[in-house]
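NADH-quinone oxidoreductase subunit N
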Amino acid sequence: MNDMNWLAIYPEILLLVMGCVVALADLWVTDEQRRPTYWLTQLTLVVVGGMHFCYYDAGLTTYAMQGMVVADPMGHLLAGFACLATLITLVYARPYAASRDMLKGELFILSLFALLGINVMLSANNFLVIYLGLELMSLSLYALVALRRDHAVSTEAAMKYFVLGALASGFLLYGLSMMYGATGSLNIQEVFGVISQGVPNKAVLIFGTVFVVAGLAFKLGAAPFHMWVPDVYQGAPTAVTLLIGGAPKLAAFAITVRLLVEGMIGLAVDWQQMLVVLSVMSLLIGNLAAIAQTNLKRMLAYSTIANMGFMVLGMTAGVVNDSTVWGANAYSAAMFYAVTYVLTTLGTFGMIILLSRQGHEAEEIKDLAGLAKRSPWFALVMTLFMFSLAGVPPTVGFYAKLAVLQALVVNGLPFYIGLAVFAVAVSLVGAFYYLRIVKVMFFDAPTDTAPLAAPADVRFVMTLNGAAVLVFGLLPGGLLELCKVAIRQALTT
């Protein structure tokens, strides 16, 4: 018990306690008075996120729960961004949920518990803790997708998400069990030590690695394990789609680093090849399939697959010289890509929520027609988001892609230069469907001529979101340096 170190997990304890408090407080709130629990949830996210950023600023790496949890800068930084993403999601979601009888305690409680699962995954130093956090997050998200119980499409999406998510969890759990059988430990650092010393069960390790990578690919939404992404993104209520497309991507990145880089770097020759295949297939399938979509949410789902391919590509670059500064730079470029992608996704789906109204879901590309005439400001902000996803300067998406490409070509190896050229080529193909959105907003005749109204808080946060995409594109050094510091300390402890 002397090794429990409760101080290191105070943010998670507070999040758990406040989730229970919100659940109890909701019992005394009538349907017309959901705002107290909403503001209590937002206050919780502000405090927990602030704690994580303060812990990151301290720059310390500590272990808790008898070594099963690690509180390091990478975990704290990503957890802080996850809290921020959830906070912004709920700001965007509030008017949408209120008009669809979804602004209930369940939305806030499940969001907090999903975030708790994310935090547990971000700080995991043990296979069982990773799985515990993964299941807590996943079960909360399954329930959120089915929150509109009388909506057939949402219920169908929840069933698909549950079945395929359970399959992915099974893959990951089976792979982790094989790693445990081969190394005799559930602790990530001890697994690293056994693998680096050379173990006789190499075949079992490789077989387990295959299942681990497959399970991670499911959670990332990388091809060919992407089949759940379009259906769930389209079928879920847009507010829940935003929740799925935001903070969970940060958790998926973190456990990929924890398992593959911190724990299984000795098997990098094996899992690197799998990541290359995943990234190439994701870039190709995601960008080509998105061109044919007319449903905006489904198009953005395929865009997510392509963007996850780009992020995975950055992780493959770090394997070549994992002990050098450039190896850490490659992983930090992938982390920077994940954070900036979430930032852009928040605004993109937030705009879809904003365009939706009572009895109408703005899910088709044609629903954006003539947005520039209805609201020039929101059309400009949406253009920034589309340019960022396409990688057009001076938005942050351009620099994120550039950072990954630099990590690929800096080694000077022909294979990686070829991967960089391929990534640029398919990104140019992908730019078509992003620019098509801009064309529809500015040059097509509007189907709805009513002025676009938005609550003051949504308008303010949307403006900040768009400004962040532009400012981080012009001045990316600060955020990239935060990612570099976090990754370097994670890899040296």
